[in-house]
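Box 3.1 A note on notation
Throughout this textbook, protein chains are presented in two layers. The first layer is the amino acid sequence; the second is a token string describing backbone geometry. Keep the layers aligned when reading.
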Amino acid sequence: MGVPDVVPLNLQIVFVLGGPGAGKGTQCTRLAQDYYLQHLSLGDVLRKERDTPGSEYGELIARNMEQGRIGPMEVTVSLLRKAILASTVQTNSRLFLIDGFPRKMDQLHLFEDTVCAATCAVYLDTSSGDRRRRLINRAVTDGRQDDTDEIIQKRFVTFEETCMKVIKHLECEGRIEKVQGEGNIDEVYVAIQQALKTRLGDALASRKAVPPRSTTPETSSTTMMESRI
């Protein structure tokens, strides 16, 4: 079955925001294991496209990632939209966590104009010192090419100059759930669950309960892409 071009009317999007190394991917992966939802990491979507042989965007994405940027918003939103629509066919899921996006106001507007308006956003509030420590550890354990000290600093600057504007905008609209992201991982996870249950209600279905009914053949609702921190 091909990828549809029309976005389902009952699609729900939750942005998961926070500085580089805030723990977005770690928490989203855990949520996708415990609940009937799909997790898309913007970084993983871009890295997959960058590493795809013959990709028309591969070199462009690589150059931007070296500068701590994600590149043209049209490319970014197009890749995310494609990944979301493909997953709705593969899993019949209508609830998505997107971590690390949007990072700029124009990205937010384009996404909500061409995909759908986000239901809410979870903001993991952490200090730059804590995030730097996590990223340095990740560079050692995972060998991530974009976790060098120079690129980390550029990503921190980009976050403060652009992404914080998105967070403040969503907060003014009443769409932000702020969660303290430092400290015990399990405690942070509990706080995120509470925030999502408040916003999503019955739409946040536990995998421990009976799976939601579907009118199409079901496939496993596993995490589409996993991300570390």
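The helical segments are 24-34, 42-50, 58-66, 73-91, 105-114, 128-142, 149-172, 185-200. Residues 214-229 have pLDDT under 50 and may be disordered.
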